[in-house]
């Protein structure tokens, strides 16, 4: 008879996650090309909620490329390209068993359309992956995490172009071949459903290059899903031990009221977040998506072989979880739930939402699940003695880990958890350093100034204890 689990499985993978574009730095070093992230500007003059590069024009791109005064923090990151041995040692000593990072596509194929990869870029990742393993961490590698070569935007219209499918699959094949026997866990595309909030970073489609941006985005995502399926097929041919996952940015969205119209509106919004996983885990487009496109005049182009290609489905679901929102029938987009506390950037804190989402995903897909991002961005204070007292972060993680344990008791097959930004890195959405997530403090400000020394926050020792006790001591 089935036994209800009492806690985390013995082989649970406690981990941390970063992205190459937010930490590595070394802009245009050793043949690296310019990526879409390298033109993300930090704008201190804008309010917090508007410091985002969601949609970008070619005019902006040209201005950014030739700017003498703009601040582009992702070009220097936290100098992880040079400091990774010491940083990984600290993370290994904390007890991490899994380390998720991305390979910067523009470091391997600087323009994206070359026939041969940049060997210098590959040599760096050889050393990085070896260092993860040496420190007791299983590598989890993301192949596309907002690092598309900018050339593919300027000369191919990003993922809107079918040609980019072939360029991306060529890149994936190089990586899958190179790291056979070293890397087991893969994520092809980071947060594939973020076609709104991070649309340019995600898809590389400049808003003035297309007539209908919304249609172009969904066409781009279609190409992205075809490329993902092709990459997954190849990975399984290369190594039967490869586990290839797909990744969502997780909700869930709640109905603002019990009015049936609000409930239905919320269902529809949640469906269009599930849509991407439905395709990549089930292998076909669901009917509700076709209706969504028809009602909005979105006409997608399918190649003759696409339906067959999409049958190459992922091995697991992964997702990020930061906050929940609410919906109603009067608004087209979800909005903030003001009944919940939030961080300074308005991201609500909802641990129960994580349990709800885990159950919803597992009920729907019945496959292994990994939480590949979760954390809280806050302003941290470095004291004169080098300490950082971040009880608010400990409280956040404690509450979320408790709900993960409850979801496991509910029967969810949760196999791993990656805290986002276990070391402070540049913010994805706002390109600032002061929005900190880490257990390790990096002495660097929004303008790249500081000693770059690393300091352990109070949350470091706390999380080390959590991992050592396999989630029992919170």
UniProtKB/TrEMBL annotation:
PROSITE patterns: GLYCOSYL_HYDROL_F1_1, GLYCOSYL_HYDROL_F1_2. Keywords: Glycosidase, Hydrolase. GO terms for cellular component: cytosol. One of its GO terms (biological process) is carbohydrate catabolic process. The active site is at residue 373. GO terms for molecular function: beta-glucosidase activity. InterPro entries: GH, GH_1_N_CS, Glyco_hydro_1, Glyco_hydro_1_AS. Belongs to the glycosyl hydrolase 1 family. This is Beta-glucosidase. It comes from Enterococcus rotai.
């Amino acid at each position: 008879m089935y036994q209800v689990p009492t806690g985390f499985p013995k082989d649970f993978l406690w981990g941390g996650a970063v992205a190459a574009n937010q930490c590595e730095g070394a802009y245009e070093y050793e043949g690296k090309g310019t990526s879409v992230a390298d033109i993300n500007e930090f704008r201190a003059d804008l309010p917090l909620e508007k410091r985002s590069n969601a949609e970008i024009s070619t005019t902006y791109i040209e201005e950014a490329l030739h700017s003498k005064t703009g601040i582009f923090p992702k070009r220097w990151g936290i100098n992880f390209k040079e400091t990774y041995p010491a940083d990984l040692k600290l993370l290994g000593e904390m007890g991490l068993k899994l380390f998720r990072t991305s390979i910067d596509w523009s470091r391997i194929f600087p323009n994206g359309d070359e026939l041969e990869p940049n060997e210098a870029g590959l040599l760096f990742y050889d050393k990085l992956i070896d260092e993860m393993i040496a420190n007791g961490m299983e590598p989890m590698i993301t192949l596309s995490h907002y690092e598309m070569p900018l050339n593919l935007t300027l000369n191919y219209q990003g993922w809107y172009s079918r040609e980019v499918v072939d360029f991306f699959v060529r890149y994936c094949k190089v990586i899958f071949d190179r790291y056979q026997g070293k890397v087991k866990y893969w994520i092809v595309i980071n947060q594939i459903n973020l076609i709104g909030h991070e649309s340019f970073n995600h898809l590389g489609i400049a808003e003035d290059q297309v007539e209908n941006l919304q249609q172009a985005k969904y066409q781009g995502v279609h190409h992205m899903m075809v490329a993902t399926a092709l990459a997954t097929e190849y990975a399984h041919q290369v190594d039967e031990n490869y586990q290839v996952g797909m990744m969502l940015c997780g909700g869930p969205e709640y109905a603002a009221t019990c009015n049936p119209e609000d409930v239905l509106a919320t269902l529809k919004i949640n469906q269009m977040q599930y849509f991407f996983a439905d395709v990549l885990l089930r292998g076909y487009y669901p009917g509700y998506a076709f209706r969504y496109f028809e009602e909005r005049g979105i006409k997608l182009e399918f190649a003759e072989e696409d339906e067959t290609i999409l049958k190459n489905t992922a091995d697991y679901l992964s997702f990020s979880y930061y906050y929940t929102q609410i919906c109603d029938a009067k608004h087209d987009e979800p909005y903030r739930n003001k009944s919940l506390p939030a961080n300074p950037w308005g991201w609500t804190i909802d641990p129960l939402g994580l349990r709800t989402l885990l159950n919803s995903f597992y009920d729907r897909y019945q496959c292994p699940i990994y939480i590949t991002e979760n954390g809280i961005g806050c302003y941290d204070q470095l004291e004169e003695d080098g300490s950082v007292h971040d009880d608010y972060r400990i409280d956040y993680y404690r509450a979320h880990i408790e709900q993960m344990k409850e979801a496991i008791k509910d029967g969810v097959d949760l196999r791993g958890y990656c805290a986002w930004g276990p070391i402070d890195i540049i913010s994805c959405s706002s390109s600032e350093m002061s929005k900190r997530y880490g257990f390790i403090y990096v002495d660097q400000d929004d303008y790249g100034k500081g000693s770059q020394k690393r300091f352990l926050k109070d949350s470091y020792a706390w999380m080390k204890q959590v991992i050592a006790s396999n989630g029992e001591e919170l």
